[in-house]
Amino acid sequence: MKVLSIREPFATLIKEKKKLVETRSFKTNYRGELYIHASVTKIDKETRNRKELFDLLGNESFDFGMIICKCRLVNCIYMTKEYVEDMKINHFEEYLCGEYKEGRYAWILDSIEPLEEPIKAKGQLGIWNYYTEFDVMEFMSDIEYGWVDQDNQKHIGDYDSFPYHYKLQSPKEVMKNKLGVCFDQVELERYYFKGYYIKTYFIIYYDDNNYPNHTFLTFQKNNKYYWFEHSWEAYRGIHEYNTLNELFDDVKRKFIETLLNSDYTLENLAMYEYQKPDYYILMIDFYKHCEKGKEINFKSLENEL
């Protein structure tokens, strides 16, 4: 769904149908359903001192960092001097709720409906896309497990040369090739989960022969934690937990049982929270990137559970 992030109190003014025009410095060609997201940015002192704005809301509270209503964007009007004067004279309450200057644009909204359950989201600049976790799983339904080498050759079921010739694909390439290992698929998930509160993790077991590992994405929604898994076919799905530690414990247990056959030494098992890597890096560089992230303390985790 298309979403527009707006600072408070202006987002709530829209939700309460006190503001039907969003003023912007740029135009948009988009027309259609639009969700309004209340930015996480706190109300600045200058805005808070504008009593006339808050009088329009009464005792309304604010849902910072939430998608709070839906509407339709039906028009985008270039502001002429005459348009600005007309708004000031004939639509003064609306005029108070925006920045009306010649050369700016008025985005006209109608069919405003508050959401019964606001959706927590980080927000983005401009009009951005918010996909549900089910949308993302559907988008990825035709992605196979495999890899692309440095010569852009595709490999499925052939991993002898993987450590030496693998390169990390961009999300666009994963969608084009319909192929990716967990490293690649997590970056595609990261792309689709823009606006969510997400974290990505790299779990690895260090031994003398090889380094079994996996990457995965988590997100938080409505006070629950979710492990979103597509590449690991045995556990493909959207798994819900009450706490992040419960999530970690479940992933760790499945990793140990499935990839290590329950034969392991805890000291050799590690997990790192990692940030977005550079695309096209080699496998060794991807490992190094992940290992620079925040390490999860498994011993402490076991004590808490």
Notes on the structure:
There is one protein chain. With about 300 residues, this protein is α+β, with helices and mostly antiparallel strands. The protein has a six-stranded mixed beta sheet with strand order 2-5-4-3-1-6. It contains twelve helices and 14 strands. The longest helix is centred in the C-terminal third of the chain and has 16 residues. Helix 8 crosses helix 9. Helix content is about 30%, strand content about 30%. It has two domains: about 130 residues, Hypothetical protein (Archaeosine Trna-guanine Transglycosylase, Chain: A, domain 4, Roll); about 170 residues, no CATH class. It is elongated and about 80 Å long. Strand 9 and strand 10 form a beta hairpin.
Quickly list its features.
single chain; 305 residues; alpha+beta; Archaeosine Trna-guanine Transglycosylase, Chain: A, domain 4; six-stranded mixed beta sheet
> Globular, elongated, flat, extended or rod-shaped: what is the shape?
elongated
Largest sheet: 6 strands, mixed
Decide which structural class fits the backbone. alpha+beta
Task: Count the beta strands.
Answer: 14
